[in-house]
Design a protein that fits this description.
Blueprint: H1 11-28, E1 38-43, H2 52-57, E2 67-69, E3 81-86, E4 89-90, H3 93-106, E5 110-113, H4 115-126, H5 131-145, H6 153-160, E6 166-167, E7 173-174, H7 205-221, H8 228-232
Parallel strand pairs: 1-2, 1-3, 3-5, 5-6
Antiparallel strand pairs: 4-7
Length: about 230
């Protein structure tokens, strides 16, 4: 049944966004008794110039997690998570849970990146591409890191041998301390990027947020604590 006010999208795009929204809901509902240190590595945004100094100017909503900035040349402890983000983004404790849980369960340093950084890496590796292909690769990069924070002990053990950078299944939030200059795109709170996406990208924000809200609500109401992603496959 279609949610009111949500514009229908092409089936493959809707499928990809729904997968990402369900995965984000799963990560939001993680339970963690103990979290190691999360180290933030801030990358300068090529669009607006925001960097680590920009992030430091904006209080981070991270009271529930021990967070610090990665110092150049430092060696993170084995149970820490290093998260790469853009200077115009904000991260919350909930958005960092998947990386922190993966580091705690795997007993190793986990390297992770936000969706916006993953898209930036994708552009650097492959050059400009059509939106659906980029979104599907983004979803695939999230899926690849999923065993580290979710699933069986065997799956986590297999993941612990990986050294790939995991993509955090979390929507991007704009950093109000970042100011777009000149021709830089306006800052935006979006499922995948801190700046308004190019005009050729479809408008999917409302669709995604509706799926995310529904999945979180379902997860909170499910008595057996099974994940929204698993429940959707039944």
């Amino acid at each position: 049944m279609r949610s009111p006010g949500v514009t229908p999208l092409p089936p493959l795009l809707a499928e990809t966004l729904t997968e990402m929204a369900l995965r984000e809901a799963d990560a939001c509902l993680l339970h963690a008794k103990k979290l190691g240190v999360v180290l933030l590595e801030v990358v300068r945004c090529g669009a607006c110039g925001a960097d680590e100094a920009t992030v430091r100017r904006c209080p981070l909503p991270l009271a529930a997690t021990e967070v610090a900035f990665l110092r150049p040349g430092s060696r993170p402890s084995p149970d820490s998570a290093v998260v790469t983000m853009l200077g115009c983004e904000l991260v919350t404790a909930r958005s960092l849970l998947a990386a922190a849980v993966a580091a705690d369960r795997g007993g190793r340093t986990v390297r992770a990146r936000t969706r916006a950084v993953a898209l930036l890496d994708d552009t650097a590796d492959r050059g400009p591409a059509e939106p659906l292909g980029r979104l599907r690769r983004l979803a695939a990069s999230e899926r690849a890191g999923e065993p580290g924070w979710k699933g069986s002990a065997a799956g986590r053990a297999a993941d612990s041998a990986r050294r790939d950078v995991m993509t955090l299944p979390a929507s991007t939030r704009r950093n109000p301390a970042a100011v777009a200059h000149g021709s830089a795109p306006a800052l935006w709170s979006d499922p995948v990027a801190p700046h308004a996406l190019p005009r050729e990208w479809p408008v999917f924000d409302a669709f995604y947020r509706q799926r995310l809200r529904d999945a979180v609500r379902q997860g909170l109401m499910t008595a057996d604590q099974s994940s929204p992603l698993e429940a959707s496959a039944r």
